[in-house]
Design goal:
- With 179 residues, the protein is mainly beta.
- The protein has a single domain, classed as Sandwich (lipopolysaccharide transport protein A fold), CATH 2.60.450.10.
- It has a nine-stranded antiparallel beta sheet with strand order 1-2-3-4-5-6-7-8-9, with no helix packed on it.
- It is elongated.
Length: 179
């Protein structure tokens, strides 16, 4: 055996011993699973929760509406609940209006929309409407609100039919014009 072969054997033996020592040292006691995260956990039926959310729907280059919310929670059935919601609809038949509410519920596919608590509708021509509960059905195009206080009208039941472009008021309590 030549001298270089002895040196090669020694190097290979040292590498083998070093590798075996490294493997031995890396194995240790089994680590315990990490703790669960502390803080608020989402319920299992919640798929998405957003804070300071903003949603915009456009047709071509024109925005149809914008939705802003302090918090939006989407569930596995496709429905969405919102807190601190503002809906802005620019250029709806030449009108621009903004609706704000403390809470909202939207069924799957936007078929039914319900706004609750401190609902305030403002149109750019100065029309204003306040109520505590309002609903909108996409299929019928009818919006309904109970106990409405408008700028010049107080009504117990009001409905708006978008298809017929009509507003019907049941049991008007008082109507007065402000000059």
């Amino acid at each position: 055996m030549m001298v270089w072969q002895r040196h090669a054997r020694a190097v290979v033996a040292l590498i083998g011993i070093g590798t075996a020592a490294g493997v031995y040292l890396t194995f240790g006691e089994r680590r315990h699973a990490s703790r669960r995260l502390e803080g608020a956990q989402l319920p299992p039926q919640v798929t998405v929760e957003s804070t300071n959310a903003e949603l915009e729907r456009v047709a071509g280059i024109d925005p149809k509406y914008r939705v802003r919310a302090d918090r939006l929670t989407t569930y596995d059935d496709g429905s969405t609940r919102g807190v601190g919601v503002t809906i802005e609809a620019p250029n709806r038949d030449g009108r621009h209006f903004v609706v704000s509410a403390r809470e909202s519920y939207v069924a799957k596919g936007n078929s039914d929309i319900e706004l609750t608590e401190s609902i305030d509708l403002r149109e750019d021509d100065g029309f204003g409407l306040k109520t505590d509960k309002a609903t909108f059905n996409q299929g019928t195009g009818i919006a309904r609100a109970a106990v409405v206080v408008a700028r010049c009208l107080r009504a117990a039941d009001l409905s708006h039919d978008a298809g017929a472009r009509a507003v019907s008021i049941r049991s008007a309590v008082r109507a007065k014009a402000r000059g």
